[in-house]
Amino acid sequence: MTETLKIGLIGAGFMGKAHALAYATMPMFFWPAPAIPVRYAIADATDELAREAAERFGFGKAVSDWRRIVDDPEVDVVDIAVPNDLHAEIAIAAAEAGKHVMCEKPLARNAAEAHEMVEAVRKAGVINMVAFNYRRTPAVLLAREIVERGELGRLLNFRGTYLQDWSADPDSPLSWRFQKKVAGSGAVGDIASHVIDIARFLVGDVMSVNAVVKTYVDRRPVQSGLRDALGTARTSGAVERADVDVDDEVMTMLRFAGGVVGSIEATRNAYGRNNFLTFELHGERGSLAFNYERRDELQLFDAGDPGDRRGFRTIYTGPPHPHGAALWPIPALGIGYGETKIIECHDFVEAVTTGKPVSPDFEDGYAVAQICDALLESGESGAWVDVQGADKGVGAAA
Ligand code: NAI
Ligand code: SOE
User: Fold this and answer.
1) What does the pLDDT read at residue 391?
2) Which of 143, 182, 199, 305 has its CA 20 to 30 A from that of 190?
3) Closest by alpha carbon to 220, among 248, 243, 193, 249?
4) Could you give the dihedral angle defined by the CA atoms of residues 272, 275, 280 and 281, in that order, rounded to the nearest 10 degrees?
5) What is the pLDDT of residue 398?
6) What is the pTM assigned to this prediction?
7) Which residue has a Cα nearest atom 4 of ligand 2?
8) What is the pLDDT of residues 334-384, one digit of tens each?
9) Residue 191, ligand 2, Cβ within 6 A
């Protein structure tokens, strides 16, 4: 019989749903599964929310105090899918209780908090992962293989974007994502962090940054309820409004270890862009281009092609590509956001059962938080800012 792992999931909003789906379906894709995740207990902020989540997502127990999950000796894995201000407290308590920890991104509100989390998991010796799932899109994994095989030659530059429009409307309410005390930062930690993770995955450590950081909508309608409706709710007219104290947008130049240069732009105010997470990577022998909105495709340019054949070639990911065989049998049948979470879940569960480390782990989450802190500092000062602790060299982010 396949081993089982009891999961305690904390938070039943957008990410609670995505993680529950991944635990339920991972063995249906990856078989033999490294272990069968058992949806043991789920927590949300009230008894009613927790009960509803348990019924909907198939968990055996519902609790409104997350400490009951952390303290339960039956729980093997604590999975943190709540707003950012709770990540550190829960992860540290879970590690101290000897649980393996999966934590949503950004790892914490800032690098200092993230560092405490790294110390806690290191001391406890538990498996830990930060949920930067976009790097697990098969096309992104393929990009990494192409880079590792040296097919692009020496890397020259990385250009990344993450453009969304769900908060462009000033009547979209002041959810937790617009409050510094909860979120830590705005577009920087929320979405630029994903591109930073991919940049580290493909290129290596970021050494210094020079950023413009901006807040366009500085007051929003006060929201009732804890969950972020991500722009699907509107409150117009003479409603109570309160201050937004995080950024909407960041644009930055980057210097990587090893001499690669780059740029990243992230905004939640780009009308017409939904989940426009893109990158281009240029090397001395070729280039790669990716757009998450066409996530089954990777564009490859080979500078060695004859002059009359120059152009990007579209590779449709499928069974021959990383984790592709576990998904669907024909390329371009189409994978979704859920599949990236299922792959993430597989790799995490495999790490827990084998004891082998998995990436991105809390160290990676901490490194991304250091870059985010540097972006915010540069946005304030207008100067280039060195990223604290960035001394590990190209490839260290693997
Ligand atoms: P959400 O607002 O949809 O859900 C948060 C849930 O946490 C709500 O159900 C809320 O009631 C619950 N909650 C709040 N306080 C709680 C407490 N003390 N105990 C138990 N539950 C509590 O938020 P969403 O979008 O699910 O975000 C959660 C985390 O996931 C954030 O860190 C966010 O940055 C991250 N995220 C990551 C994504 C990715 O692509 N990897 C996508 C969306 C979010
Ligand atoms: C909102 O910007 C959001 O839900 C982010 O929090 C996620 O990390 C991203 O994957 C989708 O957009």
Assistant:
1) 56
2) 143
3) 243
4) 160
5) 40
6) 0.97
7) 230
8) 999 999 999 999 999 999 999 999 999 999 999 999 999 999 999 999 999
9) yes
